[in-house]
Design goal:
By secondary structure, this protein is α/β, with parallel strands linked by helices. It has 2 domains: 200 residues, Alpha-Beta Complex (2-enoyl-CoA Hydratase, Chain A, domain 1), CATH 3.90.226; 47 residues, Lyase 2-enoyl-coa Hydratase, Chain  A, domain 2. The protein is 47% helix and 16% strand. It is built from 12 helices and 10 strands. The strands form 2 sheets. The protein has a 6-stranded mixed beta sheet, with helices on both faces. The longest helix is centred in the first third of the chain and has 16 residues. The two termini are 28 Å apart. It binds ligand T3D. Ligand T3D binds next to helix 3 and strand 6.
C-alpha cells in the first residue's frame, strides 16, 4: 500500500512514522481518497511494532483545510443529490478520529499552517500538537453553515474549556498558534523554520520511551474521561499491574539504580 498512496506521503525512520497530507494546491483539503489512505496508514502503523510514534503534518503552507469542498461541489450545483452528511461523516471522518484516539502509540500533529474545519479537528484528536508560529486553528464549520465535527466539540472542551470552545466554534475565526498555545490547544510553538526539527526531536523522544507504558498511559487517560473516582483508581491499579510486569519497567528501575540511561525495547 505504501507505494500506492496518491494523497499522502508516508515515511518511517527510527520508530517514527510520518504521514504528510499531500494536496498542497488545495491546502491539503480532506478528500475521500485521503480519508481511505490516512486510515490505511494508521492501520499499518497500529500493526507494525517498529512504529513507536506517529506524526501527522501537511505539505506546503497548510496543515489541512478540512472537507474538500470542490469534491462535493456536485451536491450544490444540482448535478448530484444532496450530501448525506451523517453517512459521509461515519464513513470518512469517524473512523479516522477513532483510529487516532485509540492508536496505542503517541500521535503528534505537527501543524505547519492553517488547520481549518475537520483539519483542526484531526489536529485536536492527536495526543500532542506542535505548531509553527504562523500556523492557526480555525473552526471554519460555522462559516459554511455546519457544526463542528470529528470530535472537535469534545476535544476543544477537554483542552480549552467550554468558553473558549464556544468562542472558536460560534465565531469561526482563525486562532493564531501562539494564542492557541496560551489557551492550551497547542503544546509547543516554534519558529516556522524550526518546526520539522522540533517535531523530529519530540517524536524521537517519544519513540525512545517505553512503548507499553505509553500505550497504557493513553488508555488510562482516555478512561479518566468517563470514569468515576473509584473506577479510575481501579483502572490505574489494573494498568499499573500491566506496566509493572514489563521488561521496560525493570530496565527503567535498574538503569536508575545503576546511574545509566535506560534502553527501552517495548517489551
Ligand atoms: O460530511 C461532511 O462533509 C461534513 C464535514 C465537514 C468537515 C469540514 O471540514 S467543513 C469545513 C470545510 N473547510 C472550510 O470551510 C475551509 C475553507 N477554506 C478556507 O476557509 C480558507 O481557504 C483557509 C482559511 C483554509 C485558507 O485561506 P487562504 O486565504 O490562506 O487560502 P485560499 O486562497 O482561501 O485557498 C487556497 C487554495 O486552497 C484555493 O484554491 P485556488 O483558488 O488557489 O485553486 C482554495 O479554493 C483551496 N481550498 C482551501 N480550502 C479548501 C480548498 N479547496 C477545497 N476545499 C477546501 N476546504
Amino acid at each position: 500500500m505504501a507505494d500506492t498512496y496518491q494523497t499522502i506521503l508516508v515515511g518511517a525512520a527510527d520508530g517514527v512514522l510520518t504521514i504528510t497530507l499531500n494536496r498542497p494546491d488545495a491546502m491539503n483539503a480532506y478528500s475521500a481518497a485521503m480519508s481511505s489512505e490516512v486510515q490505511a496508514a494508521l492501520k499499518n502503523a497500529a500493526r507494525d511494532a517498529a512504529v513507536r510514534c506517529v506524526v501527522i503534518t501537511g505539505a506546503g503552507r497548510a496543515f489541512c483545510a478540512g472537507q474538500d469542498l470542490a469534491e462535493i461541489k456536485g451536491s450544490y450545483t444540482g448535478e448530484k443529490p444532496p450530501l448525506d452528511f451523517g453517512a459521509h461523516l461515519r464513513k470518512h471522518y469517524t473512523p479516522l478520529v477513532k483510529a487516532i484516539r485509540t492508536l496505542e502509540k503517541p500521535t503528534i500533529a505537527s501543524i505547519n499552517g492553517v488547520a481549518a474545519g475537520a483539519g483542526a479537528s484531526f489536529a485536536l484528536a492527536c495526543d500532542l500538537r506542535i505548531a509553527g508560529k504562523s500556523a492557526s486553528l480555525m473552526m471554519a464549520f460555522v462559516n459554511i453553515g455546519l457544526i463542528p465535527d470529528s470530535a472537535a466539540t469534545l476535544t476543544l472542551i477537554q483542552h480549552a474549556g467550554y468558553g473558549r470552545a464556544a468562542e472558536l466554534c460560534l465565531l469561526g475565526e482563525k486562532l493564531p498558534a501562539e494564542e492557541a498555545h496560551r489557551w492550551g490547544l497547542i503544546n509547543r510553538v516554534v519558529e516556522d523554520a524550526e518546526l520539522p526539527a522540533a517535531t523530529a526531536a519530540l517524536a524521537a523522544k517519544l519513540a525512545a520511551l517505553p512503548s507499553r507504558a505509553l500505550a497504557l498511559t493513553k488508555r488510562t487517560l482516555a478512561s479518566a474521561l468517563r470514569n468515576t473516582l473509584d473506577e479510575q483508581l481501579e483502572y490505574e491499579a489494573f494498568a499499573q499491574a500491566t506496566a509493572g510486569a514489563t521488561k521496560d519497567h525493570v530496565e527503567g528501575v535498574r538503569a536508575f539504580l545503576e546511574k545509566r540511561k535506560p534502553t527501552f525495547t517495548g517489551a
